[in-house]
Amino acid sequence: MLSLYKRNCSLMLERCCMEFLPVCGCSSVSGSSTEPSERPNMLPKQGKQKRREVDHKEALIDPQEVKCDCIGPADRHSNLRITQFYIPPSETPLQRQYREARTETQGWNQSFWSDHNANFKRMKEEFIQVRLKEKYGDNIKERKTLSADDMSEFYKRFLDDNKDLHKQYNREWYKKNANNVLLAARVWFQQRVNTRR
């Protein structure tokens, strides 16, 4: 059974290298033995070719098929890698609660960083336009970028303006992760007790 599981993960890993990556601890891909730390090197060489964007809601890999969680490419709005969680056929209520808590945390985090990054890009663009107009007047076309010193003013101002927001985010993030760790420990303990019976 274990060899079939590893073989399925190997086949799926070959198929999904460009899209979603299984996270099940499989140690073989196409018959070669590799440590988990070497997995990033298994991605196909692409040269300067861009990776195509993936709609996370329509992933090419189904976690149910590979029987483990799958991690997708970075989202273009939040820059976070979306995880699709595996649902075991005999999922206990505690395991379901843990999976749903992780899903909720991921959705909250995704939403925060999508909004934050959109706000950052908008404010950065506004700053650049205003500063270019101040420096060059109507001859903006001559110079389209600002120096690193000019941009450092924007970065400092942005961080200062969003200091309270970041503190609030960190507090909430710690709470959610503490809850997830507690649930993970309870699931682990439940599994240990069940295997000893």
Describe the structure.
56% of the residues lie in helices and 8% in strands. By secondary structure, it is mostly helical. Helix 3 crosses helix 4 and helix 3 (93-136) packs antiparallel against helix 5 (163-196). The chain has two domains: 1-86, no CATH class; 89-197. The chain has five helices and five strands; from the N terminus they run H-E-E-E-H-E-E-H-H-H. The radius of gyration is 22 Å and the shape is elongated. It has a three-stranded antiparallel beta sheet.
Summarize the structure.
The protein is mostly helical and 197 residues long.
Keywords:
5 helices, 197 residues, 3-stranded antiparallel sheet, mainly alpha, 2 domains, two-stranded antiparallel sheet
What is the 3D form?
A: elongated
- What sequence of helices (H) and strands (E) makes up the elements? HEEEHEEHHH
Number of helices: 5
- The share of residues in extended strands comes to 5-15%
State mean pLDDT (0 to 100 scale). Answer: 75
Q: Characterize the largest beta sheet: strand count, sense, and whether it forms a barrel.
A: 3 strands, antiparallel
Order of strands across the widest beta sheet? 1-4-5
> Using only CA atoms, what is the Rg?
22 Å
Question: Terminal Cα separation, in Å?
Answer: 21 Å
Percent of residues in helices comes to 55-70%
Number of domains: 2
Q: Poorly predicted ranges (pLDDT <50, ≥5 residues)?
A: 1-18, 25-59
The structural class is mainly alpha
Oligomer: single chain
- According to DSSP, the number of beta strands is 5
